[in-house]
Structure formats: C-alpha cells, structure tokens
Specification:
This protein has 8 helices and 3 strands, in the order αβββααααααα. With 201 residues, the chain is mainly α.
Length: 201
C-alpha cells in the first residue's frame, strides 16, 4: 500500500479470491484466470503477490488471459502477458524511487539501483531503459505511447521471448517463450501508471 503503483493495483483489483495449495515444483504462485483465483505454495509466497494481482488486473482489463492457454493459437500473446507483469514490478520500483528523490527522501539514495541491479538478461536491461525513458517522457496522465516507445517495448519483449523460448520453449506450463501478439500493447501497465500519477503526486 505504501508503493504508489502497488496501491493503485490493490484498489483496482476487485474480485480476486486468494487461496493456498500445491503448485508445480519451483512455482511460487499462479493466477488462474478460469476461476479468477491466485494460488500460493503452502510454504510461502515470496514476492509473488503483486505479480499475480497484476495478472488478475490484466484479466479484468483485457478479458483475454483464458485464451492465452489455448494450444490451438500457439499460446499467442503469452509472452506479452508475462513481460508486462515483469514490467509492472520494475516500474513500481522506479516510480517509487523517483518519487522519493523528488521529495528529498534519504531512503531513495542508492535505492534507484534496486531496479538497475536486477538485469541479468538482455531483456531486463532493455526493459529498465524503456521504463526510465517512459517515466521521464510521461510526467502526466492521458498517455499515448509514441511509435518509438512502442518499438522499444516490442524490442525488449522479443528479447524476453527469445530468451525464454531457448530455455523452456513454449507450452501451457510456461508461456514466457510463446509468440508475441503485435497488437497487444501494455495498456494495463500504462493504466496503473496513470492512476499512480493521480494519487501520488
């Protein structure tokens, strides 16, 4: 609730049931669009709550997540959904640190590198670059991405998809490497960012 975008997300997700249960090994949590439920491992949730709530928000906004699991479409758009969720996590870190710096909050000193230290793979480096440019270029609401911003977004998304396809391929249990839907823009991310501008500045 103390994080501007996290607060916007929490107040926007209206009908999510949170349950615990057994997941496949290695998974921390999972959003199930067919039942609008988040399920956690019984041994702890890690940092997964915000990520899975973001998937619930995508479902609310797009109404298409159930179709992502369709093998007949090759899970088209699966990588879009997962990449936007990763972007949500990074954007929330960057926005909070920029806000703290604007308010001369000492807890922001060095904190900006929390997001910057995360890149291990090319797609996260590209994503962080995109987020910083996005924040600096869009200080107010009613955002419409420029062609350059869209192009940079899809370049980072393709690096994300290619990396995950090389590691795990594409399938119902891992849609990270599945085909990109070029019409699927990061509207949920932008929507929450606009709400955070309204509520936190």
């Amino acid at each position: 609730m103390e994080n501007c975008i996290g607060n916007a997300l929490l107040t926007s997700v209206t009908s999510v049931n949170i349950t615990t249960g057994t997941l496949v090994p290695g998974a921390q949590a999972q959003y199930r669009p067919t039942t609008n439920t988040i399920i956690f491992r019984p041994d702890g949730i890690g940092n997964s709550l915000g990520e899975e709530l973001f998937h619930a928000y995508q479902q609310q906004l797009y109404g298409t997540l159930i179709g992502i699991g369709n093998p007949n479409t090759g899970h088209l758009g699966g990588s879009n959904i997962e990449f936007e969720e990763k972007a949500y996590t990074q954007l929330s870190i960057w926005v909070e640190n920029f806000r703290k710096m604007d308010n001369h909050d000492d807890s922001a000193s060095g904190g900006l590198f929390v997001a910057d230290a995360a890149p291990i793979f090319e797609e996260l480096t590209l994503l962080n670059d995109w987020i910083v440019d996005f924040i600096l270029n869009n200080p107010s609401g009613n955002i419409s991405l420029t062609q350059n911003e869209l192009s940079s977004w899809f370049t980072a998304l393709e690096a994300f998809r290619a990396h995950h396809f090389a590691v795990n391929g594409c399938g119902i249990t891992d849609v990270y490497g599945c085909p990109i839907d070029p019409t699927f823009k990061p509207d949920a991310l932008i929507n929450l960012y606009e709400k955070s501008i309204e509520n936190c500045n």
